[in-house]
Amino acid sequence: MATLTFYGAAETVTGSKYLVEADGHRVLIDCGLFQGVKSLRKRNWQPPGFKASSVDKVVLTHAHLDHVGYLPRLIKLGYRRPIYCTPATRALARLILLDSAMNQERDAEYANRKRFSKHKPALPLYTRHDAEQAIRLMRAVKRNQWLQASGPIWVRLHDAGHLLGSNMIEMEIRTQDPPIRLLFSGDVGRYNAPLYHDPTRPPACDYLICESTYGNRNHAKADLLEELADVMQRTTARGGVALVASFAVGRAQQLIYLLQLLIHSGRIPRIPVFLDSPMSVNATHIYYDHREDHDLAEGQLSGRRSVLKGPNVHLASSVEQSKRLNKIDGPAVIISSSGMMTGGRILHHLRRRLPEARNTILLGGFMAYGTRGRALQEGAPTLRIHGRDVPVKAQIESVSGLSGHAGREELLRWLAPLPAPRQTFLTHGEPDSAQALAETLTAEQGWAVSIPAWGESFELSGATS
Ligand SMILES: [Zn+2]
């Protein structure tokens, strides 16, 4: 008997964890952190719903925190076996996990120092030591080759075009002939996106586990460079600082490159650009090392290392350098993380820049429910940061073209060639979004679609031979 259980990314966009069990073997697909509202974040502290030491292997779709960020906790709970992923995912996950562990330690330390936590003392969810142990267990595997994950459970990775090293995971449970076939979409990338390949055409499957982040929305058709030019022109005219919350990996590199294009073509003045994230600098080198994963002709990073080191581009690695940015007067750009403003250096910049009307806070991607990014998008008059309510006077702008997720039309385009699966599970989407996509797939394709709840299990059966 084979089962599939949804331990995360069920009716929400974070915490991806899907457990497949067959003949006593257990394979976990992704091991993500819950992010967003407190009720979700609390789940990171609860037992995950399965025994960590009973899992035989973990296979990762990609390195984003909502797909790998729970790994160090899993190790703390007793997991000691290999974690399979592509080489680029391993390299990026190393940065992301160490950064996450550092943020956990720093936030706990800050809460203790300022005494605003109810918990005495406030503890980190995991430490750098736990993250290092997780990194040591990561084994790089090649795409497009079948790999025996555990017992009858085999996996094969295909480029998802969402982030360097990102994959969809095809799975066969070979307990019968023909085997039971599953396809985990991971996060589906976009067509013709700078840097990345288009998502691979999905292989046929009995069970499809598909993300639905943008199941009810399309991305604006506006040209990304035009959108960015418009926002930057208005901000520089006011003499303000544009504060950009960006995932340090992938989007930050794209942003600097696009800003430099605007400056070089004379569309915006030669303003200083501060990259306040040591992780971003390291990530750029990983991009150079894994050229097989991205389209350099489109990304135009090849031969342009100087783009990240131009006279107007400043890298802030140390905490002191980061603090000094508080004294910067506009016009200028500060790019910092985390992307949804849930933690990290961006919080200090928000406290400094939010109360002034001449500044711009630029939101560059999906903002999950309950995050500060989402609150700003929805027009919150104040933002709670480090136990204080900070007034929102700055201009709040969104640039939709920077999202790494397929929009609704792109998701449907990706799904179009797929023969109807026996069952489709929509995950990694908030309820409205998953529901909208489910209705379309049911009404237009006649597919059997369900939206699993957190912890819900399904029995799997293959085609009869
Ligand atoms: Zn992702």
Describe the structure in brief:
The protein is α/β, with parallel strands linked by helices. Helix content is 30%, strand content 22%.
Describe this structure in words.
With 465 residues, the protein is α/β, with parallel strands linked by helices. The chain folds into two domains: 2-217 and 404-460, Ribonuclease Z/Hydroxyacylglutathione hydrolase-like (Metallo-beta-lactamase, Chain A); 224-402, 3-Layer(aba) Sandwich (Rossmann fold). The chain has helices spanning 38-41, 65-68, 71-76, 87-114, 128-136, 224-237, 251-264, 278-289, 296-299, 319-324, 346-353, 372-377, 408-415, 431-445, and strands at residues 2-6, 18-22, 25-29, 57-59, 83-85, 138-140, 147-150, 153-159, 167-173, 180-184, 195-196, 207-211, 241-245, 273-276, 294-295, 313-315, 332-336, 360-363, 382-385, 388-391, 395-398, 423-427, 449-450, 457-460. The strands form five sheets. A seven-stranded mixed sheet has the order 6-5-4-3-2-1-24. The chain binds zinc ion. Zinc ion binds next to loops.
